[in-house]
Specification:
heterodimer, A: mainly alpha, globular, B: alpha/beta, Oxidized Rhodanese, domain 1, 2 domains, 43% helix, elongated
């Protein structure tokens, strides 16, 4: 996965965020908040996000989270399983931000 | 807490007269291509639904096998959390069991080395847990759509099931693909951060990949 180790992926799966940097923890918490129903990002979490990201960056990050919710939920309707994109030890070349 | 088991321990369990059930948590398509000899297929996300049906005898103890998104851990957790059976997990590469393989074609996937393909006696089980809709054949789609499939195949080495399904309604196919493409263009955030969000969201929604 893009620059994310197997151990980090396991931590994300288990909801163990303590090993991540503060900006990343804020993003993971945002992803959690958006996956909830009802979906609420608290004022505290938004303030934390703003400490680390510009408004424009947050627009992009929120869109990425919303898009993934769309895609993941869409797949559940049709009971789509894994296409095997991830395997332990598999590495993708990390793309840098433009 | 799920415990990992090593290859030798798994082999020992498989050879032991007190049988274990080898549950392969691979997605159905991957399972059809290759799996450990004698394994039955219960993808991690479907443990709750299928386990009691497919492993009715609780005296049997399952081990879960897979390395997709740590799916063996997920499957084993599900087994244990639901009090279905005690379960350990092991990943494919640790589980090379060439010497215990049943007769079948020789496997060809490099990651799995000398594993053999077992022509599955549990194919009917696999078929029951396929996606609910069949996707299109990418080679039979219109020219522009074929280019999208071609690009993704080049990037990921395979056609993606959701895209093949979505392609049945071109308007939906294009809206999803164009949105994704535009969001990825000149993004001012590192790919790692986008990936963290995607991974956590997929975990929370229960969408395997």
């Amino acid at each position: 996965m893009y620059g994310i180790s197997d151990d980090e992926i396991a931590a994300i799966r288990d909801g163990r965020f303590e090993g991540f940097q503060p900006p990343e923890v804020a993003l993971l918490r945002m992803a959690d908040a958006l996956a909830d129903t009802p979906s609420n990002v608290s004022d505290d979490l938004y303030a934390e996000l703003r400490r680390h990201f510009s408004e424009e960056q947050l627009i992009e990050l929120a869109a990425a989270a919303a898009q993934e919710n769309f895609r993941a939920r869409y797949n559940r309707v049709f009971n789509v399983g894994s296409d095997g994109l991830y395997r332990k030890g598999l590495r993708f070349k990390e793309r840098t931000a433009a | 807490m799920v415990t990992d088991i090593e290859r030798d321990e798994l082999k020992q369990k498989l050879d032991h007269p007190k049988k274990i059930v080898l549950v392969d948590a691979l997605p159905e398509e991957e399972f059809r291509k290759l799996h450990l000899p004698g394994a039955i297929n219960i993808p991690a996300v479907q443990v709750q639904r299928l386990a009691t049906e497919l492993i009715p005898n609780k005296a049997l103890r399952p081990g879960a096998v897979d390395d997709h998104f740590h799916a063996s851990d997920t499957a084993a957790n599900e087994f244990n959390a639901n009090g279905l059976l005690q379960c350990s997990s092991i990943c494919w590469r640790q589980a090379r069991l060439a010497e215990s393989s049943s007769p079948g074609r020789q496997g060809g996937r490099s990651a799995c080395g000398s594993l053999r393909i077992l022509v599955s006696p549990t194919r009917s089980i696999s078929e029951r847990i396929m996606a609910r809709l069949e996707g299109v054949d990418p080679n039979k789609t219109p020219f522009l759509m074929r280019q999208v499939f071609k690009k993704i195949r080049k990037m990921l080495g395979r056609d993606l099931t959701p895209q093949k399904i979505t392609a049945r309604v071109p308007r939906v196919f294009w809206s999803l693909n164009l949105t994704e493409w535009l969001l990825g263009q000149k993004a001012k955030i590192p790919q790692r951060q986008r990936s963290l969000i995607m991974l956590r969201t997929a975990v929370r929604v229960g969408c395997p990949f």
